[in-house]
Design goal:
Elements lengths: L15 H18 L4 H21 L9 E8 L2 E6 L2 H27 L5 H19 L4 H19 L5 H33 L16 H14 L11 H4 L5 H10 L1 H17 L1 H7 L3 H20 L3 H22 L2 H32 L15 H15 L6 H14 L3 H18 L1 H8 L13 H33 L2
Antiparallel strand pairs: 1-2
Helix pairs in contact: 1-2, 1-4, 2-3, 2-4, 3-4, 3-9, 3-14, 3-19, 4-5, 4-10, 5-6, 6-7, 7-10, 9-14, 10-11, 10-13, 10-14, 12-13, 12-17, 13-14, 13-17, 14-15, 14-16, 14-19, 15-17, 15-18, 15-19, 16-17
Length: 493
């Protein structure tokens, strides 16, 4: 039954927003309650994930004119507010729909590799989804900042899940970089915005237009982009490759479902609803950050091409692909912003597929090095077929979803008259071709490098990666429907 059919949870009723945010939290509590019964524990996580996905999808009819829910009027001018708008719904859909798919994958991975502390894993995963949805539905900067910090704290135990010295070190770097940037840069930017604009509420067209000069806006925009450490801009990107010591389902959470997507979502949200694309374009305040994004995009791509560890290569690929979205925000026009928003969805589907494949390879063949994957595609055709599909989508070739987001980004750079950035985007595409395509080529066309009989991983690992690979194909045909509500906001005066 569609959630929309239940009157008090219709998309026009503001109550649906806090209920949607609360469902993963309740699922996490159920996981803890069933901690001694693994089957029920995992079933609770799956049920909560499916319910969350259904609730999020039911909101799409109200995407263009959604409700607002005031959670708490804290102090004069400071309130916790949920509001439904197209960009937030796009991010909520990514987190909500991919959660149950990742949970199914995690069941096979965590059991297949006999991972410890599985109850803790599922509980903190659920809390992370709650934080991601809180961020997605935030109606102002204060609400968003709280969710942003909770997401950092909720994912830290997942990064350090293994409990060995390497995992603990990665957890410390993760926590230190993300908290330092958010408290030292993002929070001051939030306060400065409140002083300048007299509000922290998000509004189409922005709230800072005419409130400050070019120099002030330039510094403030840089504070935001560097302060949003989850977006992975150089030099605050080191936490992301380091976090690859975590189990593969955590890597999927970090790269596709919640964390980095929360970062680039926040970048776009600030550009569109705080500064306003028109203000950024008119003042040129975002232009210095285009160069930071370009350096990150190319530098991370070059590093990815040199890495033999598969998850590390995919991690640097993520840093590079996130920079596409940051660059979209900094180009400050409607076309680029639409491309950046669409790239959030396309990259999520493709990158979760790639990490699912990496985890399946590790579980079935105990291999982590690209140089040792020769010939494995014959034993694991579904896994490496999905890897090929996702790679083509990240590169941006038809008939995969990444085609349209890359195309819109190129058009946005051309519309902004940014010839150098147009060249950067094209160079990034060539780099992604260089670091991704050799993997399926080695797997399918080289003789086996490893003796012994390998075969596909368990169906609980293979089914999710096939589903997300199919999503990469579906996004090629359905891109317009995904981005249409946001285009209405971007095109409105």
């Amino acid at each position: 039954m569609s959630v929309q059919a239940v009157g008090w949870l219709s998309p026009d009723n503001a109550l649906v927003l806090p209920v949607t945010v609360a469902v993963p939290l309740l699922g996490g509590l159920a996981v803890l309650a069933f901690r001694r019964r693994p089957d029920l524990r995992e079933a609770a996580s799956l049920v909560a994930g499916v319910a969350t996905a259904a609730l999020v999808l039911s909101l799409w009819p109200a995407a263009s004119d959604g409700p607002t829910f005031r959670l708490w009027d804290w102090l004069p001018g400071i309130a916790l507010v949920f509001a439904l708008e197209p960009l937030g719904l796009l991010f909520a859909t990514v987190a909500g729909v991919l959660w149950p798919v990742t949970t199914l994958y995690a069941i096979g991975y965590m059991r297949g590799n006999r991972e410890r502390h599985q109850t803790r894993f599922y509980a903190f995963f659920a809390l992370s989804i709650t934080a991601a949805l809180w961020i997605a539905f935030s109606g102002n900067l204060v609400t968003l900042f709280i969710g942003y910090e909770v997401l950092t704290l909720a994912t830290w135990p997942l990064v350090a899940h293994a409990g060995d010295e390497k995992a603990k070190r990665a957890g410390r770097v993760y926590l230190a970089l993300l908290l330092t940037t958010s408290i030292g840069l993002l929070f001051p930017a939030l306060v400065w915005t409140a002083v300048l604009a007299g509000t922290t509420d998000f509004a189409p067209g922005g709230i800072l237009g005419g409130k400050a000069g070019t120099a002030t806006l330039t510094v403030l925009f840089a504070l935001y982009l560097f302060g949003i450490g989850k977006a992975g801009l150089f030099p605050f990107h080191r936490w992301l490759p380091g976090a690859m010591v975590a189990p593969t389902p955590v890597s999927a959470l970090l790269h596709a479902v919640a964390v980095v997507k929360a970062g680039v979502f926040t970048v776009l949200k600030v550009a569109i609803y705080v500064f306003g694309l028109g203000t950024l374009d008119l003042t040129g305040a975002a232009e210095p950050m285009t160069w930071v994004a370009a350096v990150t995009l190319l530098g991370a791509g070059l590093v990815a091409a040199t890495r033999d560890d598969l998850k590390e290569r995919l991690a640097y690929s993520t840093v590079s692909q996130l920079a596409y979205i940051v660059l979209a925000a900094a180009l400050a026009n409607d076309i680029a912003a639409a491309g950046g928003a669409l790239h959030i969805v396309n990259h999520a589907a493709a990158k979760i597929t790639l990490f699912f494949c990496a985890g399946a390879i590790y579980t079935a063949a105990n291999l982590t090095r690209v140089s040792r994957l020769d010939g494995l595609g014959r034993a694991m055709p579904w896994t490496f077929g999905a890897f090929l599909v996702a790679s083509v989508s990240v590169i941006g070739l038809p008939p995969l979803g990444g085609t349209w987001s890359k195309w819109l980004l190129l058009l946005g750079a051309a519309d902004a008259g940014q010839t150098v950035m147009l060249a950067v985007l094209l160079a990034g595409t060539l780099l992604s071709l260089a670091y991704l395509m050799p993997i399926p080529v080695r797997a399918f066309f080289r003789p086996p490098a490893e003796p012994g009989a390998h075969r596909e991983a368990h169906w609980t690992l293979v089914l999710p990666l096939v589903l997300t690979a199919v999503a990469c194909v579906a996004l090629f045909a359905g891109a317009d429907a995904v981005i249409a509500p946001l285009n209405e906001v971007l095109e409105s005066p």
